[in-house]
Amino acid sequence: xxxxxxxxxxxxxxxxxxxxxxxxxxxxxxxxxxxxxxxxxxxxxxxxxxxxxxxxxxxxxxxxxxxxxxxxxxxxxxxxxxxxxxxxxxxxxxxxxxxxxxxxxxxxxxxxxxxxxxxxxxxxxxxxxxxxxxxxxxxxxxxxxxxxxxxxxxxxxxxxxxxxxxxxxxxxxxxxxxxxxxxxxxxxxxxxxxxxxxxxxxxxxxxxxxxxxxxxxxxxxxxxxxxxxxxxxxxxxxxxxxxxxxxxxxxxxxxxxxxxxxxxxxxxxxxxxxxxxxxxxxxxxxxxxxxxxxxxxxxxxxxxxxxxxxxxxxxxxxxxxxxxxxxxxxxxxxxxxxxxxxxxxxxxxxxxxxxxxxxxxxxxxxxxxxxxxxxxxxxxxxxxxxxxxxxxxxxxxxxxxxxxxxxxxxxx
Length: 412
Description:
By secondary structure, the chain is α+β, with helices and mostly antiparallel strands. The protein is 30% helix and 33% strand. It is built from 9 helices and 18 strands. Strands 1, 5, 6, 7, 8, 9, 13, 14, 15 and 16 form a 10-stranded mixed sheet that branches. Strands 2, 10, 11 and 12 form a 4-stranded antiparallel sheet that branches. Strands 3-4 form a two-stranded antiparallel ribbon. A hairpin with a 5-residue loop joins strand 15 (257-265) and strand 16 (271-294). Helix 8 packs antiparallel against helix 9. The chain starts with a helix and ends with a helix. It is a multi-pass membrane protein. Keywords: ATP-binding, Cell membrane, Disulfide bond, Glycoprotein, Ion channel, Ion transport, Ligand-gated ion channel, Membrane, Nucleotide-binding, Receptor, Transmembrane, Transmembrane helix, Transport. GO terms for molecular function: ATP binding; extracellularly ATP-gated monoatomic cation channel activity; purinergic nucleotide receptor activity.
């Protein structure tokens, strides 16, 4: 029974009768859709579409959606005071700001002057940079919180080169309205269009919370194809996880942000820029999988290996039970009890035969005596007295006590 279960596990569950291919070739195409409106003092009224909040604009296996912003408008290259939040920029006198040296983790290069704000004793170094420098902090409420309702279309092409098998995660249908109306979910698991808020919620996080300082979401597509079945049975499975440090909101490692700028010139031809510090959600789409198909070579190899391993397994089990456990003698007695009893009986039978044969031979060589002759002649006991003793010996292998007493009386 146990061997039947093991063989069923190997062949039915693990499918060891198949040749497998794990060298999956994959391509990802992503498209995000959705618009939102904002009205801020830095940017005024503004409509945000895909070209504004998706980076890079050509979706691949990694794409970023902006959810929060720190905006520093109308920067130009000139001299200004460095930010007070940068420790390397603090100074007490001009000698603390050697000209030409950049400020570590700062925004520009020192000019050699120390600038004081009001009557404070400590100032900051003057720098040549894009001024004014960024000084605002991150908003407590996400600027693009409505991105929760945006959707992303994930198209995945795969190929297993060993079997020359190709597949895509888009449902094979001629209905052009299918992709415009469907959304991935329990009711429609074969639709490749995902709502961003749902993707984040499937990781156990809240979209509005992660949108404040950003985060990283992993979308894993797994293909496990049994090519002994119809191609329609090969379909993707999706798994969603949050990859950044989600357990400590104040941790420096949590969140995701970066800076970028948009450049332009004013009426006088001076180059200006607007600096954006973007917080948002980075989506990493990862694809893996394997395919299997029947092949006689792995079938034969696994059958032989399974049979050999079952024999070796019983040997090692006996070895452990007999020699390595504390109460091994119980197992040893039970295992070898029948063999030991047969061996003892064989030895007892052999010894009994050896003890009876010489006595019988000795009695056969005794000379005949006549009736009425004395009790002992030529050192032999008379035949009448020996006959009962000999029959008793042949019957049960023992001499009767009464016969021994009569024998002693005759000899006297």
